[in-house]
C-alpha cells in the first residue's frame, strides 16, 4: 500500500506542475518556451518557500542596491568582476538573487564551485551572476563534439579532460540591466582570462575525485544549457569575429528539478525500506540523485520518470583556440587572452548603448514595484 500511495503521489505532483504523463513517460503538455516556463514555476516557488527565512532576513540588506531604470545611465556603466567569497556581503547578495529572481529553479551545486558577481561600480548595484560548478561526467553531445570517445581516446581519460572544465549553472543579468541586454555581457564574461586565472589559483592542488590524481589547474572550457530551447543570448554571441558560445546539441531531457525536496525525501525513505543504499559521499554530484530516483521509479513501475522531457540546448565557451587538438592530439593550448574590461567595453558599444537608444523599456523598471512583488513572494512587509 505504501508503494501504491507513493506512486500516486508522484503522479499527482507531476500533473499539478503541468506535465503530461503518457506511456509511462513525462513531458510538458506543449513543446514551447511558455510551457517549459510553466512547468518550472512550482519548483521555483518551492525553493523560495524552502529558503523563505533567509530571503526575508536578508531583504533589507539587498534592497538598498535595487535601482530604478531611470537611475541608470548606460554610458556610465562601469563593471568589475567579483569572485564571491564565503561569509561575505557579496555571498549574501549572490545567494538572495540566485534563489529569488530566476525562472529556472535554484538547485544545490556539487563538487568544484566558483561564483562571481558582476558589479556596476558607477551605480553601486549588482549587474549579474555567474555560478560555476562541476560538470556532468558524461554528456553525449559534448563528448562527441570534443571527440573524447570518438577519436581513439580511451574512456579512462574522460575524467581527465572533463575535470578541466566547469558548467555554468547560473548565467544572467539582474534588473534593470537585463533590459539592456546585460545577459550577453554576463555570457561574454565566461571567456574572460580573469575567470580562468581565478580557477587556476583555487584548484592548483586539486585531486580528482574519481581517479584520485592531481590534474593540471587549467580551465579549458565552460559549458552551459539554455533552459527553454535555443538561447537568444548565446546564439550568434561573437567577440573578435569568433563565436564566444558554440551550440553543440541538446540534452536528453533528464533531470531532477521536477521532484521537489519533500517528495524526494519520501522516495529516499521508500528506498531505505527496500534496503537500498542511499548514502552519498563528496564527489557523487547530481548524478547520484538521478540514479537513486531512477532506481525508485523502476521499483514503482514508472521507469522513465527521471526524464522531465525538456530538451535543453548545450553551449560551449572555449578558453583555447585549438580545443579539439588539445584533447585529441594533446597539443599545447593556445590560450585566448580576453580581459574582462575589454569584453565589457565591447558589450557596451555593441549591445548596451544601441539598445538603450532603440528600446526605452529599461527606463520604466520600477524598483518599488519590484520590491512589492518580491515582498509578496517571500512574505515580508513592504515599507
Q: Could you characterize what this model shows?
A:
The protein has 14 helices and eleven strands. It is α+β, with helices and mostly antiparallel strands and 383 residues long. It has one domain. A seven-stranded mixed β-sheet has the order 3-4-5-6-7-11-10, sandwiched between helices. Strand 1 and strand 2 (25-28) form a beta hairpin. Helix 8 runs antiparallel to helix 13 (340-358). The mean pLDDT is 86.
Secondary-structure element string: HEEHHHEHEEHHEHHEEEEHHEHHH
What is the 3D form?
globular
Tell me the number of strands: 11
- Termini Cα gap: 50 Å
Low-confidence region ranges: none
Number of helices: 14
Strand ordering within the main sheet:
3-4-5-6-7-11-10
Alpha carbon gyration radius: 22 Å
Largest sheet: 7 strands, mixed
Given helix and strand content, the structural type is: alpha+beta
In helices, the fraction of residues equals 25-40%
Q: Strand fraction band?
A: 15-25%
The overall number of domains is 1
Average pLDDT works out at 86
Amino acid at each position: 500500500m505504501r508503494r501504491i500511495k507513493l506512486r500516486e503521489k508522484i503522479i499527482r505532483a507531476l500533473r499539478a506542475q503541468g506535465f503530461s504523463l503518457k506511456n509511462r513517460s513525462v513531458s510538458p503538455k506543449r513543446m514551447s518556451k511558455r510551457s517549459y516556463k510553466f512547468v518550472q514555476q512550482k519548483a521555483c516557488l518551492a525553493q523560495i518557500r524552502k529558503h523563505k527565512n533567509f530571503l526575508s532576513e536578508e531583504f533589507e540588506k539587498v534592497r538598498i542596491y535595487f535601482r530604478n531604470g531611470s537611475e541608470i545611465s548606460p554610458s556610465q556603466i562601469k563593471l568589475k568582476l567579483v569572485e564571491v567569497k564565503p561569509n561575505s556581503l557579496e555571498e549574501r547578495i549572490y545567494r538572495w538573487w540566485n534563489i529569488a529572481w530566476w525562472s529556472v529553479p535554484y538547485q544545490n551545486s556539487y563538487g568544484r564551485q566558483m561564483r562571481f558577481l558582476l558589479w556596476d561600480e558607477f551605480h553601486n548595484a549588482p549587474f549579474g551572476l555567474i555560478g560555476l560548478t562541476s560538470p556532468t561526467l558524461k554528456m553525449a553531445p559534448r563528448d562527441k563534439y570534443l571527440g573524447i570517445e570518438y577519436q581513439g581516446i580511451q574512456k579512462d581519460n574522460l575524467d581527465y579532460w572533463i575535470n578541466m572544465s566547469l558548467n555554468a549553472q547560473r548565467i544572467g543579468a539582474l534588473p534593470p540591466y537585463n533590459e539592456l541586454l546585460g545577459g550577453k555581457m554576463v555570457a561574454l564574461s565566461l571567456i574572460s582570462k580573469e575567470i580562468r586565472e581565478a580557477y587556476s589559483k583555487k584548484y592548483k592542488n586539486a585531486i580528482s575525485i574519481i581517479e584520485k590524481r592531481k590534474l593540471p589547474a587549467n580551465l579549458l572550457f565552460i559549458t552551459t544549457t539554455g533552459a527553454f530551447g535555443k538561447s537568444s543570448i548565446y546564439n550568434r554571441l561573437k567577440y573578435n569575429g569568433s563565436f564566444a558560445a558554440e551550440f553543440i546539441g541538446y540534452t536528453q531531457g533528464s533531470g531532477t528539478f521536477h521532484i521537489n525536496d519533500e517528495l524526494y525525501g519520501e522516495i529516499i525513505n521508500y528506498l531505505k525500506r527496500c534496503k537500498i543504499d542511499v548514502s552519498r559521499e563528496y564527489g557523487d554530484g547530481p548524478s547520484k540523485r538521478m540514479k537513486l530516483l531512477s532506481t525508485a521509479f523502476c521499483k514503482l513501475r514508472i521507469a522513465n520518470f527521471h526524464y522531465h522531457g525538456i530538451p535543453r540546448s548545450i553551449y560551449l565557451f572555449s578558453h583555447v583556440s585549438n580545443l579539439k587538438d588539445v584533447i585529441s592530439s594533446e597539443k599545447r593550448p593556445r590560450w585566448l587572452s580576453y580581459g574582462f574590461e575589454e569584453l565589457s567595453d565591447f558589450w557596451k558599444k555593441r549591445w548596451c548603448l544601441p539598445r538603450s537608444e532603440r528600446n526605452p523599456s529599461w527606463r520604466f523598471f520600477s524598483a518599488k514595484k519590484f520590491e512589492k512583488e518580491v515582498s509578496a513572494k517571500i512574505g515580508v512587509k513592504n515599507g
